[in-house]
Amino acid sequence: MKVPFLSLNTATETVRTDVMKRFESIIDSTGFVCGKNVAEFEESFAALHGVKYTVGLDSGTAGNQLAVMASDIGNGDEVIVPANTFIATAEGVSMAGATPVFVDVLQDTFNIDPDAIAKAVTQQTKAINPVHLFGQPADMDAIRSVADRYGLKILEDCAQSHCADHKGQKTGGLGNTASWSFYPGKNMGAWGEAGALTTNDEGVYLKARMLRDHGSSVKYHHDLVGHNFRMSEFQGAVLAEKCSHIERWTEKRRQVASWYDQGLNGIPGIVPPAVMEGVSHVYHLYVIQVKNGKREALQEYLAENEVASGLHYPVPLHLTKAYQSLGYGKGDLPIAEQLAQEILSLPMYPELSDEQVEHVCNSIKEFIAAL
Ligand SMILES: *Cc1c(COP(=O)(O)O)cnc(C)c1O
Fold first, then answer.
1. How far is the C-alpha of 308 from the C-alpha of 213, rounded, in Å?
2. For residue 88, which atom of ligand 1 is closest to its CA?
3. What's the 351 CA to ligand 1 centre distance in angstroms?
4. Taking all residues of the chain, what is their mean pLDDT, rounded to a whole number?
5. Distances (CA, A) of 301 to 222, 363, 367
6. Is the shortest distance between the CB of 60 and ligand 1 below 6 Å?
7. Cα pseudo-dihedral 236, 239, 244, 245, rounded to 10
8. What separation in Å is there between the alpha carbon of 207 and the centre of ligand 1?
9. For a substitution probing ligand 1, which of 65, 86, 317 has the most ligand atoms within 8 Å of its CB?
10. Is any atom of ligand 1 closer than 6 Å to the C-beta of 161?
11. For ligand 1, is residue 250 a contact (CB within 6 Å)?
12. Any idea what DSSP says for residue 273?
């Protein structure tokens, strides 16, 4: 039985007819950028996450950078970033002129370690950039208490956490800003590149809107040096439609995860993902830990059984070549380094069937039993 890592077909077909109608009207109006579809998406997305403002952008990476810029953080400033995330989190900091400071993560949830944050704070630290990795909210109470103690801002990276809940509140409104990605493979995907920034702070919102459009709110009058981070109307149309489906798709992901949890329970050397008390995980990825150096062999065995899998992420950011100049070395962030050797992402998307999940779990069981 074939189990692909990801499939976008069903989600695409579900919204196809309604999106095509919107596309026709965009073409008729020739209003291709930041028009009424983007505005509708911004309103629906804010409502969905219980946050006041959304700014539609052209990528999640733009959101990472804009979050830093709109928080008045730049040259000479430091922002604390978990070592185990996609590089865009750190790139946003770098592109805004500040320096990412990498810290270790927690072994069980893969998320940023609040105690490690406190130890990394210096005179230059301006913000913490937690990532709700794989769809699980980071420990925001502990992070907020460190932020309050040192007067730091919190920039959430919500690229993987659409609709995730932290103690009764959705991610995206738990800090000063939050950045979002709608890359096609994310839980809520555009039909191309798109991203967003959300915030409850009106000042940040107004500044982010200006920075998205070359620092201007009146055409050709530029109050700030900004960028072009504007969202396409076509992506706004897709995302406006998807806002009314994402909660249902998220429930399906949780169902798939619960099948995995059952199927993988008690297999020696396999650690299913732990979920922190009080949060709801949205399973952008379902990531297990494979102990005893068996990860590569298991991945090969799965491939032989037509089960695709992935590594998120194979190199922790403090050891990646792009950040060599920051001077980190092997052994600096031991948990992130160990996880890079042991994590394995299993197929995850809303339409996976229980038979497919059973095939994945049985393949893993066979592999371990044969050791
Ligand atoms: C995907 C992702 C981004 C970047 O989003 P793009 O839309 O691809 O630019 C940023 N942070 C994390 C954690 C991501 O997974």
1. 41
2. 10
3. 23
4. 98
5. 57, 8, 7
6. yes
7. 160
8. 22
9. 86
10. no
11. no
12. P
For residues 233-271, b (16+ Cβ closer than 10 Å) or e, as one string?
bbbbbbbbbbbeebeebbeebeebbebbeebbeebebbb
User: At residue 153, what are phi and psi to the nearest 5 degrees?
Assistant: -85, 160
In this predicted model, what pLDDT tens digit does every residue of 124-138 receive, in sequence order? 999 999 999 999 999
For the CA of 62, the closest atom of ligand 1 is: 9
Q: What residue owns the CA closest to ligand 1's atom 7?
A: 60
For residue 128, give the nearest of 105, 102, 110, 162 by alpha carbon.
102
Residue 61 CB–ligand 1 contact under 6 Å: yes
Task: Give just the sign of the alpha carbon dihedral 158, 48, 236, 310.
Answer: positive
- pLDDT, tens digit, for every residue of 335-358? 999 999 999 999 999 999 999 999
pLDDT for position 294: 98
Segment holding 318, helix H or strand E: none
CA 254 to ligand 1 center in whole angstroms: 21
Cis ω on the peptide bond leading into residue 323 (within 30° of 0)?
Answer: no
Query: For 63-95, how does the pLDDT look when each residue is reduced to its tens digit (9 = 90+)?
Result: 999 999 999 999 999 999 999 999 999 999 999
Q: Measured from the CB, is residue 84 less than 6 Å from ligand 1?
A: no
Q: What is the pTM of this model?
A: 0.98
